[in-house]
Structure prediction request, 759 residues.
Amino acid sequence: MISTHNLGFPRIGKRRELKFALEQYWRGESSLPELEVTARTLRQTHWQYQQKLDWLPVGDFSLYDHVLDTSLLVGNLPDRTDRRLAETDQYFQAARGQSSKQLQQTPIAAAEMTKWFDTNYHYLVPEFSADTQFELNAERLLAQFREAVSHGFQAKPVILGPVSYLWLGKAKDDSRKLDLLADLLPVYEQCLLTLAEAGADWVQIDEPVLSTELDQDWQHALTQAYFALNKTPVRLLLTSYFAPLRENLNLACELPAAGLHIDAVNAREEVIKVIDWLPAHKTLSLGVINGRNIWKSDLNSLLDWLEPLHQRLGDRLWLAPSCSLLHVPVDLEQEKELDSDIKNWLAFAVQKLDELNCLALALNHGRDSVKAELAQNADAIQSRRASEKVHNPQVRDRLQTVTEDWGQRRSAYAERSKIQRARHALPLFPTTTIGSFPQTTAIRQSRLQYRRGELDEQSYQRDMQQQIEYAIAEQEKVGLDVLVHGEAERNDMVEYFGEQLEGYAFTRFGWVQSYGSRCVKPPVIFGDVERPKAMTVEWIAYAQSLTDKPVKGMLTGPVTMLNWSFVRDDQPRSQTCLQLALAIRDEVQNLEQQGVSIIQIDEAALREGLPLRRADWQHYLDWAVNCFRISANGVKDETQIHTHMCYSEFNDIIESIAAMDADVITIETSRSDMELLDVFNAFDYPNEIGPGVYDIHSPNIPDVNQIRYLMERAAERIPPERLWVNPDCGLKTRQWNEVKPALAAMVQAAGELRQDAAA
Ligand code: GLN
Ligand code: ZN
Prediction:
């Protein structure tokens, strides 16, 4: 008999119960015991969903983040944490920081947050130094284990392995993280012993670093770790996911452990090799259900593949989702408004577990035992494959006509920039913003009422026009050079466009945790993408009619649209991206025809699409940049293309950024003190650039001297004729009373810089 298990279940709850409970607690409106009740109820509900599995994950639940949980488990919350607080409050303090207002003393900084491998989940970065000491604190994990056992579940504790834990953290001094391994291992050993005493049999120990490029030291660390940990009485299921093992394959097979889990969705081609290499006493868990996407699996074809493997492995074969289900929404059943065909093609966490169960039954008892389920699944797969909703011949035909020159501007930057300069006659150090202005309650109200049908088209139009009037007037008052319409009509930079494109669907409850209590609801690209009509032209044209200054057209780029959506799995991502690129290209051309002379195409998420392994980066960057170029470069020389990116790790992809060939790029820099610009010491960025000088994440108003200082740093690396002055990002989360003085300071600083230059 093969066994089934799950690597982790979404914690947030099918109605985001955890989010609301957390936020209520943080506002001081509920007590810790009340929060604990919600947490316990969620865990139990989630175990109920998983009860048909042979092994249920325990310890995957977290009040904020599983990496921070690990820090708590090994006694490594940041030193600055206030130890007088209750443990959970210390934990939240480490996660969120605390302002001086809350504390009436110096503020406590939150731990740094960064992306969990190549997902959109963010974890809290563990902090290390030469004197870091570890101490086991397994109470929570044990309590959850006992909780599950008391409900009669066969529980499998889940912990983040010691090597990945170190790998994910950051040394705050110049110590070597790996030097801490020797001190960390005894704590892990003790943890496993404690779990064994409590009755644990299998323990899932995650080492996702196995799918990254590891040097010898890190590989050796894995060997050292598992020689030690495998001596404990539990059975270890060493768990990797997200990408192929490649050069770590032999190591992963040979590390001392009772079993190995691999991602058989993203690395199916490695399965046979793993089976060949894996010692005969080891269990092999195959992650066959995609834990990162929301499509139904093709169960019949999976069985065709799995049956012979089952023959070979017998009981040693386990089945699971490819990775934790943290990255998909909870339950499709809630989606009452979704198109019924599309719904029939999807599977969220709960449905994925049903699929898993169905596969196990078919393997253990023959396909006939789940005949009806398999037939239904075959119908759904067939319906998606053949659906007219998915396949649009016009889009296909058009893709055939795309040639290389679609991505090519007519003239090189040096030439077209002269024409653009003559057209706009902008001063040195031109000032602009990134697009959005404060999203006031009035704006939200109006959008919401319109959505609900409580506000008619005309009144909504009027409301938005008034917002545009206000934004334009304020920008003129402040004296900015290039204006924006303010994006009042957009609630989200991807959703706004997705809703107007064919091939996109939206869920009501398809929430996925981004970090802590924050969730995102990625739209679903299910079919060929086509733009039925212009999406932004009216708003921009209206804004332009109100002023003599240029107003930027404002679009979201194809790569960002792709990276922030659930995408189809029946064609390469690059192909879907190209379809998006064509839709945006058409919009760009419509804007140009309307006389819009500057068009900004945001690529906030370009970096996020980078594959886990560097060896795969260039391939991604090539097609991503190509898609951007196709969307942007169908314009005349006199049209100025801007792009915007809101992050500062730039150094390793700068050549691809330059290859996008935008006339102007605006980027986030203010917090890093222009450190980011160091890359321009070595790399001669050819076009114009606006390094952000106003940190929009903070309510602080930047002062004129600070802005001048930052711009002067920038001017050391980039000729002043090619510099713009702008904030780090859009201003939608700020308030007008902050934005007005901040922009005024920016304009004043630019004025002073011009005077200095003239002198
Ligand atoms: N134009 C968008 C805005 O200003 C850009 C947002 C972003 O980069 N995340 O809101
Ligand atoms: Zn941004």
